[in-house]
Amino acid sequence: MSVAEFFDMGGYALYVWGSFGMTALLMGIEPFLVRGRRQVVIKRVARILRMNTEGKR
Amino acid sequence: MSNRLINWFKFASPATFYPLAEKIWRWSTLIAVVLIAVGLYMSFFVAPTDYKQGEGYRIIFVHVPAAWLSMFIYLVMAFWSVVGLVYNTRLSAMMTSALAPTGAIFTFIALWTGAFWGKPMWGTWWVWDARLTSELILLFLYLGFIALQGAIDDTRRADRAGALLVLVGVVNIPIIHYSVKWWNTLHQGASVSVSSGSSMSSIMLWTMLIMALGFWAYSIAMAMARVRCIILERERDTTWVSELPEVRQ
Amino acid sequence: MLEVVDLECARGDRQLFSGLCFTLEPGELLHLHGHNGSGKTTLMRTLCGLIRPSAGEIRWGGESITEVEDDFCRDLVYVGHKNGIKDDLNGVENLRIACVLDGVPISEAAAWEALERIGLRGHEDLPARVLSQGQKRRVSLARLLAHKARLWILDEPFTALDKAAVEFLQSVVREHVANGGMVILTTHQEVSLTRGQVKQLQLGWKGEGDV
Amino acid sequence: MLEVVDLECARGDRQLFSGLCFTLEPGELLHLHGHNGSGKTTLMRTLCGLIRPSAGEIRWGGESITEVEDDFCRDLVYVGHKNGIKDDLNGVENLRIACVLDGVPISEAAAWEALERIGLRGHEDLPARVLSQGQKRRVSLARLLAHKARLWILDEPFTALDKAAVEFLQSVVREHVANGGMVILTTHQEVSLTRGQVKQLQLGWKGEGDV
Amino acid sequence: MFEAFRAILMRDLTLALRRRSDIFTTLFFFVIVVSLFPLGIGPELEILRMIAPGVFWVAALLASMLALERLFSIDFDDGALEQMLLAPQPMFILVLGKVLAHWLITGLPLVVMAPLLGVQYDLSTTALSVLLVTLLMGTPALSLIGAIGAALTLGLRGGGIMVSLLVLPLCIPVLIFGAGAVEASVSGLGEAGHLYMLAAILVLSVLFAPLATSAALRISAE
Amino acid sequence: MFEAFRAILMRDLTLALRRRSDIFTTLFFFVIVVSLFPLGIGPELEILRMIAPGVFWVAALLASMLALERLFSIDFDDGALEQMLLAPQPMFILVLGKVLAHWLITGLPLVVMAPLLGVQYDLSTTALSVLLVTLLMGTPALSLIGAIGAALTLGLRGGGIMVSLLVLPLCIPVLIFGAGAVEASVSGLGEAGHLYMLAAILVLSVLFAPLATSAALRISAE
Ligand code: HEM
Ligand SMILES: Nc1ncnc2c1ncn2[C@@H]1O[C@H](COP(=O)(O)OP(=O)(O)OP(=O)(O)O)[C@@H](O)[C@H]1O
Ligand SMILES: Nc1ncnc2c1ncn2[C@@H]1O[C@H](COP(=O)(O)OP(=O)(O)OP(=O)(O)O)[C@@H](O)[C@H]1O
Ligand SMILES: [Mg+2]
Ligand SMILES: [Mg+2]
So what does this one do (chain A) (predicted)? Predict the structure, then answer.
């Protein structure tokens, strides 16, 4: 089976790759979104922490 | 008995769960990557071409796992909601909200891949058929849950209101599952059932199961990662958070 | 009769009070003190069961109020910051509906009489919309005259009332306590409530000098 | 400065007062008395120009307030039964907008300071929705600190305030009067306002023994 | 218990009669939306007859959605809601009273008007009566389900849109079976199946929606 | 004076952004009403193109009518209105600010969406741009005129219906010229005349409606 044949998917290229593509896209983006959220949270907690320690001094 | 209860409550405390979640996250990420890689290989190179649908049927390997998980995640959310409402544990609500985005994504994937499969098979992207409609409703339920939680400032109220919404929506799950049985629809009937074995070729079945397990591990990984963020957000004033290495540097 | 054990309440991300314990027996009055924002309203709403405490328990006759909810509600009258009356209904209608909801329906004549006693003669059948601030407050307080629940929880009942009405309401409260009722109230005004047993409870010491 | 001539007001089909005359000079405070529903709020709103009197005239600096409306409004702060603050805005935003509308915009820093002085430290940027009753009242009273109009009309300003805040507000009022401001206020509470010239005005004598 | 139910029902009806706006706005809205179509499309009866079920049901859904926001919010603002929560009656009884009043005010007029408006669409008498029956069973279900959403979003930022977002998905089945029944009867297929489903939805929502609503109110009133 | 105008404008926009519901409910409503028609009628482009102007304009009218009731009533209830009346600025400036904010929140999103939705109706680019222009001139006029009605019926029993009754007759000219312009452009006749009339209505209402509204508010606030 040639590469071109493989990508043609027996004439169903749009449908098969459209499905797998969207799936890969979403499942690929999600971890990055979560990582971004984590960084934001950590920054915020660190800021609060700094504020508190400064406030006590 | 009581000993075991105490044990459970120990893990139900965010402080002890936080490090545990990291371990679970690591392992399930690993499992997800391996299983999905194997599953993808099998779905394109091992599984044979279908005699009726040609290559187009390969969509099944993402459609069905995603559809299963969209429902399963909702059930897990409902479980945590009940626990939260009854035992008033803090962690359960955090789990519910950690799961919702992943559930919404899988629901969307199920709809999207279903539509992309329906076009060649039924000749239309969309029909107002019982299963498709109820799956769409599931997406709205997820979105409604996320929006509701976003709109409420008070976390306790957000938790309880969200839990209630999830429980109200849970009627939808059996409807999705049995819709093909209750109404005559365009959609495929159950092809995998516990009792009567399977009507599919076993290699296809295995591929689907491996993909489903991979998606499942992926969901766990995402939920754990997200619940860690939520724990940090909510417990930011406690001492144990201020002693964590990641916030101290 | 009313026991509060280790009560803790938080609003937003702030803890208002914790470890609060007291009991209230028949014939006792509890006077809550505290500066603005110290959590008096929060405490009262928690005692009514409107807010779930973050920890602790409230017992009525020995049992948690979440378990004997209906009985507890039957024994309770709560008058909050909001009057809970409908602008489009007149005083009599408002009072009668409030009483039906409290489980003790009263006749129209009784409603007229209660409103007259609380000083609304001639205003009983005006829609609440046109009443003055103090007159609206009186409509919502008329429930105290119309039927006698055992526990009264009154959140600043004297606001907007003129002196005569404050005097009258105080006598009503005194009488209720003398007859073995229980009252929890808060007010920023000076009032004389010394009949029966008066307990004092202070919320939020630290912030007292807030202004 | 403020002259009231033969004022008459009716609400519904009832005449609340008539033939009311008084003047108020700089450095004077007018304390309105009257039982609930005697027409204090009505009188104050009439003095502000919100209600048209059925007869009589109100003059500001010798001219009818309907003619010098803008000037009069510039000199006036009215705090009514309703706080006039937006539940979805926080204290600072509420105060700044109120000041802009009064024609004397203030800086953000000044707003924070005024709120702090009136005892809202730590609550300045909470949405008014979550504030306690007294805290909401303080937000609306903070206008009195932020800029000084000459005439203050305060309708039961002390409701919902705790003792410290009542004390503080009284000192603010005293100071305003001492500096040549004018104040008209009503309250059912006992307050000590004896600095400068205090006038008393009693509305609705006949019904006083209403309760 | 029945006393309290009746009192709430009568109170809300009285209030509605005194204000009147609520009755008329929904009805007015329904009438306008439904009448617009024939005006816009012109008198091709074939087409009209085809689209009628969808039009009526979508209009009914929108109309009841519009009225929802105010179902509890007034009581919430003036403090009547907390008094209801403190009444020694099961809250769901009071909720049932309020929802019934709400339906009598906003739903019933619409059901009554529907057959009159249906004439514009050249619906047969059978189709009209099926329409009437579906609306009669469907609109109370819409009100009951909508009440859950209204209670959950009480006093929230973004109340209006949230109600629609939460409630629409739950209401879609009602819409589908309602319109489906009329369609089936227009096209001569049996409408019984759809009607049974509608009845089942109505029964389920009478049983469970007031419970969920009162739980939601308790949460929101904190 | 400009300060106060800006302050009111910004305040109402901030409030709307915090609550969000108001923006979305009207927009959502407009989108649903407009999209329903093609779904209901099916894809006969001939018919769709014919009814498009009417549908868009009626939907816009209904949408802005719906939002009117809350224009002043919240300010009235929480006492902000009396403070505005006592501000040393001419009241009509403040009214103008409020109405502008109201239009930006409820009208503008609708105008922006209209061309997108217009594609469903197979409107030509010219027709679409005429539609855009008419909506851009017409919806502010609707808001301005509607404000008078909203102010007059403030705190009245039966507010909602009264607003519609008072305002609809005044709004019908806007509807007629707005829909007329689009129709004229679809059918190739000149739309200029209609546009001039719309512009005239807009100018007149900018000049007089705020004055009338502030007088009405003064009466209602007694
Ligand atoms: C937008 C359209 C579609 C949606 C929303 C959708 C949704 C779903 C859902 C929710 C399931 C899981 C059901 C369960 O486990 O109870 C499912 C399973 C399945 N779907 Fe779809 N689907 C769509 C289109 C299609 C199409 C076009 C096909 C094939 C022609 C298809 C074939 C299958 C198969 C074979 C299963 C597994 C059946 C089972 O084991 O129960 N689906 N789908
Ligand atoms: N969501 C929230 N976020 C932050 N703080 C909150 C929140 N909700 C309530 N609060 C705070 O909790 C306190 C609640 O006060 P509460 O209404 O119980 O006071 P109170 O003692 O009744 O005061 P008052 O005498 O003014 O009536 C206030 O300080 C308020 O600012
Ligand atoms: N439309 C109306 N019909 C009949 N009476 C009315 C109408 N509008 C107002 N009133 C009466 O006019 C009086 C207005 O009182 P106002 O609000 O001025 O009293 P107040 O002195 O401020 O009282 P409070 O101390 O309670 O605030 C009340 O007695 C009220 O019942
Ligand atoms: Mg309070
Ligand atoms: Mg008054």
Answer: Required for the export of heme to the periplasm for the biogenesis of c-type cytochromes.
Res. D208 pLDDT band, cuts 50 70 90:
very low
Residue F125 class from Cβ within 10 Å (0-12 exposed, 13-18 middle, 19+ buried)? exposed
How close B153 gets to chain C, by Cα (Å)?
A: 8
Least CA distance to A36: which residue of chain B? B229
Structural domain count of chain A: 1
pLDDT digits (tens, 9 = 90+) for B12-68: 788 889 999 999 999 999 999 999 999 999 998 888 877 777 788 889 999 999 999
**Which tokens is A54 given?**
């400064």
Q: Is residue C36 part of a domain?
A: yes
Q: How far is the CA of E3 from the centre of ligand 5 (A)?
A: 36
Identify the CATH number of the domain in which residue C90 sits: 3.40.50.300
Q: What is the second-level CATH architecture of the domain B22-49+56-231?
A: Up-down Bundle (1.20)
Q: Does the structure show a pLDDT above 90 at F119?
A: no
Inside any domain, residue C209: no
Whether B75 is in the pocket of ligand 1, judged by its Cβ within 6 Å, is: no
For residues C133 and C120, what is the distance between their CA atoms, to the nearest angstrom? 12
Q: What Cα–Cα distance (Å) separates residue D19 from each residue in B78, D9, D203?
A: 71, 9, 12
Contact B161 E176 (CB under 8 A): no
Contact A42 B233 (CB under 8 A): no
Q: What pLDDT, in 10s, does the model give residues B156-206?
A: 888 999 999 999 999 899 989 988 777 766 777 666 654 444 556 788 889
Distance from CA of C15 to the nearest CA of B (A): 12
- Residue C61 belongs to what domain range? 2-202
**CA-proximal residue: ligand 3, atom 29 (nearest):** D37
pLDDT digit string, tens, across residues D35-58: 998 899 999 999 998 888 989 999
* Residue F201 confidence (pLDDT): 92
Kindly give the interhelix angle for E91-102 and E125-152, rounded to the nearest 10 degrees. 130
Work out the average pLDDT over E42-58. Answer: 76
What chain F residue is nearest to E39 in terms of C-alpha separation? F51
Question: How many beta-carbon pairs below 8 A join chains A and B?
Answer: 92
End-to-end CA distance of chain D: 37
Range of the domain at A30: 3-55
